[in-house]
Amino acid sequence: MTIRYSVTDHIAVVTLDRPEALNALDIDTLVELRSRLSEARDDDDVRVIVITGAGAKSFCVGADLKRTLPPSTSFGSSFVKSLDRAGAEGIYVRLMELSSLRIFKPMIAAVNGYCLGGGLELALQCDLRIASKSAVFGLPEAIVASIPAVCGIQALQRAVPSAIAMKMLLTGCKIDAEYAHRVGLISDLAEPEALMDEAMKLARAIAANGPLAVQMIKKVIETSANVPLAQALEFTELAWGAMRESEDRVEGRKAFAEKRIPRYCGR
């Protein structure tokens, strides 16, 4: 098993478990990661997903360069095939790209060391990133004559100022956690030994809110990110209307009036 998975207090923790390889991603790990994320997506008891890496050295250093060499099949023949078939035939970047899983539950990356290449691209696909003060971030693909082919080019440009993203992309340079926090790549910093405690604290704060509302907020953000404002506002109103009569929304108002903690059920 290259992925450890557990659920506690409505929080699924997905741990990349190849510390001997700095949690690099080979095909088997990617397939198992997608399976576990799908399990968390479909489990009504799960409200938040935390992704982290085993050991103190690395969150994830991206693709396992020793086990993702160019295959014997041509790119053209694999390009038109299904996600699973293309991944097995060498287009492993499709397995790293998570949007096809349609996960609207919030995902938190708890970054505990090296977060490089596909590892950073994995973290960039999470909604929040909290990092150990010893974490290091980078997209060094250009150094090995490749490019960030999952989402790194686009996602990094959205996450940090363009000039900083371009410097990281074109030089392959690495940045430390304090700099990453300063430029907005991560939301929170933690001491290495406190990282998971802080990540779980953040996850519990989210899980305590109305789960349908939290997921709808994420869906609205993703759906309206690249549309005209009028269309985005119209979709937001429809989303609000879809939530208006939910049991949780009624419960939230009752709890507020009665000055008690709400008991949300996800309906």
Automatic annotation (TrEMBL):
Pfam families in alphabetical order: ECH_1 (PF00378)
Record SUPFAM superfamilies: ClpP/crotonase
Keyword Lyase: yes
Protein's GO biological process: fatty acid beta-oxidation
Family annotation (PANTHER family): ENOYL-COA HYDRATASE, MITOCHONDRIAL, ENOYL-COA HYDRATASE-RELATED
Keyword Cytoplasm: no
Coiled coil: none
Organism: Caballeronia pedi
Name of the protein in its database record: Short chain enoyl-CoA hydratase
InterPro entries, per the entry: ClpP/crotonase-like_dom_sf, Enoyl-CoA_hyd/isom_CS, Enoyl-CoA_hydra/iso, Enoyl-CoA_hydra_C
PROSITE patterns named in the record: ENOYL_COA_HYDRATASE
Protein family per UniProt: Belongs to the enoyl-CoA hydratase/isomerase family.
Keywords, alphabetical: Lyase
GO MF annotation terms: lyase activity
